[in-house]
Write a structure and sequence with these properties.
The structure holds two protein chains of two kinds. Chain A is mainly β. Chain A is built from no helices and eleven strands. Classes of the chains: A mainly beta, B mainly beta.
Chain lengths: 117, 111
């Protein structure tokens, strides 16, 4: 069964350092999502891509976070510089269509757990 | 704005007990409602969904009915198993809103 791949699974870094996370969605899925999940809370959408275009980044802290999906396939989320409050699980998900297909099922990867010291 | 409220955990039950996890929502328009499950060390998986009032979603013995009059989407299972131990998230989306998750309910089942 096709899965969403993420790496690394775990990342420990010191504050003010740069970190990057990678996501490879299910083949053929047009929409890709990055979420942040703070311990004990539900996921919060950071950015949504439709192919290579950003369709929603309203919750992305753009002063330190950036995301790209250059060829409309895999994606990278970067934090520079990392802060203590960025410690969380970063989840990637993909769906076949997304966009106006609001009931389109999102398939999640296993996540990257970030710890900022 | 839209929001989802679900019962706080942890919920601890014995195997074969009846399960209810409450979820209520606030939304404009006509949202779609979802339950996701997160097993230890894994990402979220869609458990079931309902897209209009009075719809019942079901999967793996779990059920939830979209109740517009009470703005609820409670998750139920008649007989839980140890393998059901996980964190359960209620969520909604609408044409005016990206998906919004509740804070999650941790379920632990004792053998």
């Amino acid at each position: 069964e096709a899965e969403v791949a993420q790496s690394p699974r775990y990342k420990i870094t010191e504050k003010s350092q740069a970190v990057a996370f990678w996501c490879d969605p299910i083949s053929g899925h047009a929409t890709l999502y990055w979420y942040r999940q703070i311990l004990g809370q539900g996921p919060e959408l950071l950015v949504q891509f439709q192919d290579e275009s950003v369709v929603d980044d309203s919750q992305l802290p753009k002063d330190r976070f950036s995301a790209e999906r250059l060829k409309g396939v895999d994606s990278t989320l970067k934090i520079q510089p990392a802060e203590l409050g960025d410690s969380a699980m970063y989840l990637c998900a993909s769906s076949l269509e997304g966009g106006q297909a609001i009931t389109d099922t999102q398939y999640f990867g296993p996540g990257t757990r970030l710890t900022v010291l | 704005g839209n929001s989802v409220t679900q019962m706080e955990g942890p919920v601890t039950l014995s195997e074969e007990a009846f399960l209810t996890i409450n979820c209520t929502y606030t939304a404009t328009g006509y949202p779609s409602l979802f339950w996701y499950v997160q097993y230890p060390g894994e990402g979220l998986q869609l458990l079931l969904k309902a897209t209009k009032a009075d719809d019942k979603g079901s999967n793996k013995g779990f059920e939830a009915t979209y109740r517009k009059e009470t703005t609820s989407f409670h998750l139920e299972k008649g007989s839980v198993q140890v393998s059901d131990s996980a964190v359960y998230f209620c969520a909604l989306t609408s044409s005016a809103s990206k998906i919004i998750f509740g804070s999650g309910t941790r379920l632990s089942i004792r053998p």
